[in-house]
Amino acid sequence: MTYDLIVAGGGLANGLIAWRLKLLRPELNVLCLEQQASIGGNHTWSFHDGDLSLAQHRWIVPLVVRRWPCYDVHFPARSRRLSSGYASITSERFAEVIATALGDHLRTGQRLTQVKPDSVSLANGEHFQARAVIDSRGVRNSDRMVLGRQAFLGQLLQLQAPHGLEAPIIMDVRVAQGQGYRFVYVLPFSADTVLVEDTHYVDRQTLSADQLRAHIADYVSEQGWTLAACLREEEGVLPITLAGDFSGFWREAKGQPLSGLRAGLFHCTTGYSLPHAVRLAASCNTTRWRRSRSPQAYGHSHIRPGAANASTGCSIACCFWPGEPRIDGK
Ligand SMILES: Cc1cc2nc3c(=O)[nH]c(=O)nc-3n(C[C@H](O)[C@H](O)[C@H](O)COP(=O)(O)OP(=O)(O)OC[C@H]3O[C@@H](n4cnc5c(N)ncnc54)[C@H](O)[C@@H]3O)c2cc1C
């Protein structure tokens, strides 16, 4: 059997593409393959109201676990509250909603060993053909890119008493600095639960998870909060684009359609990719996903290589769609 589309890797970008197509084009034979036991990994993905259009916000409502009407930033000499909405999606909710929607169009526990524009192979020896394959198996290392890192560890904490916060703290720089640039990120999910992330902009990640945990414990104690339990932990080392040979980076993909971090579709100074992932998936909204609506067209129309695009904050684009893509089965 030949699938209309295979999405290789069931993370943020490909999960959204598969979900979008399932909602709008249920007749398409789409297969999502993920190596883990569930899709979406272990993240809290946040975004600003202004990152998405009203229609995009409406579409992803089922994924959103918490919204706030404003957020705070704190620097050593200045603090400010910004009246701009902020929202979070958790991997748990992402997996619950999208895995349910995809049904048997999703196969988890499937490690891909080879991904090509029209076929994939699995570690168990299975091989599938498709009219198109989109590869989104996370960041692709390339000598063509000069990358810094945003390294962080976050803990969802249950406190013994309410924390008193009214809004997220997107950046709290009133903390001891070490190597690189350090700040703490705080999301108050309920009156007595809070996600606290210790974040460092560095050339290379050298701090251990235990050091980052100790920073969080210090921060919690400085706020006068008393810990009841750590409910969950997440960590990441996100790519920050410093410079690169962008055309060379694209050529390395050799015509393979890509999405997500693998496609370079992330904010150049935060490594965040949710807004691009939503916009790319939302572009799958026509009866025929032609070149004008393809990942390649998305990348080229939204991002200018070599310069951080002020409106999108993105530095590179490399979504490829070889030939005339048609996944409408005609
Ligand atoms: C802890 C954390 C928090 C973040 N918070 C935010 C945020 O608040 N806002 C934001 O915009 N961005 C955030 N990001 C950055 C970025 O949005 C995420 O990293 C996002 O998940 C990237 O999406 P993706 O689809 O490119 O890759 P991923 O979501 O990482 O998906 C890749 C998928 O491919 C699978 N895979 C890999 N190899 C194989 C294989 N061989 N076979 C089968 N499957 C495979 C992986 O298991 C994974 O599920 C965060 C990142 C992390 C790590």
Main attributes of the structure:
Alpha-Beta Plaits, 330 residues, binds flavin-adenine dinucleotide, FAD/NAD(P)-binding domain, disordered C terminus, seven-stranded mixed beta sheet, alpha/beta, globular, 21% helix
What does this structure look like?
With 330 residues, this protein is an alpha/beta fold. It has helices at residues 12-24, 54-60, 91-102, 209-222, 246-252, 274-282, 295-302; strands at 2-3, 5-8, 30-33, 44-48, 64-68, 71-74, 79-82, 86-90, 106-107, 112-116, 119-122, 127-130, 133-135, 145-159, 169-172, 181-190, 193-202, 227-244. The strands form four sheets. Strands 7-6-15-16-17-14-18 form a seven-stranded mixed beta sheet, with helices on one face. Strands 1-12-11-10 form a four-stranded mixed beta sheet, with no helix packed on it. It has a four-stranded parallel beta sheet with strand order 9-3-2-13, covered by helices on one side. The longest helix is centred in the middle third of the chain and has 14 residues, at 209-222. It binds flavin-adenine dinucleotide. Residues 9-14, 33-36, 41, 43-47, 111-112, 136-138, 234-236, 238, 260-262, 271-274 line the site of flavin-adenine dinucleotide.
Rg, Å, rounded: 20 Å
CATH superfamily of the largest domain: FAD/NAD(P)-binding domain
Q: Can you name the CATH architecture of the largest domain? A: 3-Layer(bba) Sandwich
Distance between the termini: 15 Å
Which structural category fits the helices and strands? Answer: alpha/beta
Instruction: Specify the CATH class of the largest domain.
Output: Alpha Beta
